[in-house]
Design brief:
Strand content of chain A: 15-25%
Shape of chain A: elongated
Mean pLDDT of chain A: 95
CATH topology of the largest domain in chain A: Alpha/beta knot
Oligomer: homodimer
Number of strands of chain A: 10
Low-confidence stretches of chain A: none
Order of helices and strands of chain A: HHEHEHEEHEHHEEEEHEH
Largest interface: A-B, 32 and 32 residues
Strand order of the largest sheet of chain A: 6-5-4-9-7-10-8
Number of domains of chain A: 2
Helix content of chain A: 25-40%
């Protein structure tokens, strides 16, 4: 039982709150019994597993928590990356909010067979907030890393200013749904390189856009339903 | 120009981070120029408006920020509540995460004509995180407060364990989409009282559910599209 806050394992967990340490050690931490259980179900062997009252004093575990939620368990794992692919997948470009990145990883796991592909300037999917928001889907479906130019299949870009709407698309796989930052949207090279540029039909008297994590799920659900009907 | 942190207006903004003060004063604070602008566009007169460098020293405004985002403007407004109604609206029951409540207010503003109706045990829509997540839609479409028994129209409950899926519904207005907490779901009295209980079709190898804010938007988009096609 760890009883000192100077313990090396605790120090490592604390360091992993920072991206530079995650990059240097190629590890990340997942907080909470539900996430540790999800990792186990998906066959991930922890590098370190700290359970309050078993491996470590509860108060010491609280002190290294990045989420301040009084987790009863923290697991440390080696990072993994998938390859782009699948009949339906998502490409994120400049989505800097870790909660959104994690939420899209969860939604993609629920709605499509391909991974979330992270392009430039996205939040680190292995940051504490992203891991938490993914709710274990990160373990079942690790994200991929690739640029837009490396994507294959029909690339459908979401853009709030597009003339065509999602329902104008006749999806035939493989399809990659491309989503940008909430304010800036997708950069010109993605919009001009995409096979189709569409918007989600919103009320004219409402907001210009949906939250990026919400938009991804709405579009994936719509595309997945119609691709299933075609199959 | 306010130059003292003991200024009464600054003290009020700080107090409004707490629900008991929002209830007592019937006020709330919105942080950031975009939210203050959204309030103005929607015709809300601020009780107090504090702009950094104009009304108050920037550092003092930072100190009363609930979001720690270095806001350049904070507006204080009187709370407003809508009445339930509309051809399509949302009822939340036990959705305790303020980010989710705010996100649903934004999505409902984008996708349906009725308000978000808050039932028991929901996060305060006027808390700093909820106001931020609503991205100004709170001003255009203030939420309503009501119990399930007060709702009229076709009440469609989302439940991850339902046999029927969303696409089995033949929506005819007015429709109220009912959504519960992510883990607990909707309570028995709502499930038994609803006119239909359906799930969003998810992959069998994926997570059991979507984030509550995401699920609301996916279902609203689906229902709104089919109600528009019927109209």
């Amino acid at each position: 039982m760890i009883t000192s806050k100077d313990n090396e394992k605790l120090k490592t967990v604390r360091k992993l709150q920072q991206k530079r340490w995650r990059d240097r050690l190629d590890l990340f931490a997942a907080e909470g019994e539900d996430l540790v259980e999800a990792a186990e179900l998906a066959g991930w062997e922890p590098d370190t597993l700290l359970v309050a009252g078993v491996d470590v004093e509860g108060e010491l575990l609280d002190e290294v928590s990045a989420l301040g939620s009084g987790s009863r368990a923290i697991g440390v794992y080696r990072r993994r990356w998938s390859e782009p692919g699948g009949r339906l997948s998502v490409y994120l470009h400049g989505v800097g909010d870790p909660g959104n990145v994690g939420t899209v990883i969860r939604s993609a796991h629920a709605l499509c067979d391909g991974p979330v592909v992270l392009g430039p300037d996205c939040a680190d999917p292995y940051s504490p907030k992203a891991v938490r928001a993914s709710m274990g889907s990160l373990f079942a479906r690790p994200p991929a890393q690739a640029g837009f130019a490396e994507l294959t299949g029909t690339r459908i870009a979401l853009d709030a200013g597009a003339e065509r709407t999602l329902s104008d698309v006749e999806p035939s796989g493989p399809v990659v749904l491309c989503i940008g930052a909430e304010r800036e949207g997708l950069p010109p090279e993605v919009l001009s390189g995409a096979d189709d540029v569409v918007r989600i039909a919103l009320r004219p008297d409402g907001p210009e856009s949906l939250n990026a994590g919400v938009a991804a799920a709405v579009a994936l659900h719509d595309l997945a339903n119609r691709m299933a009907a075609d199959a």
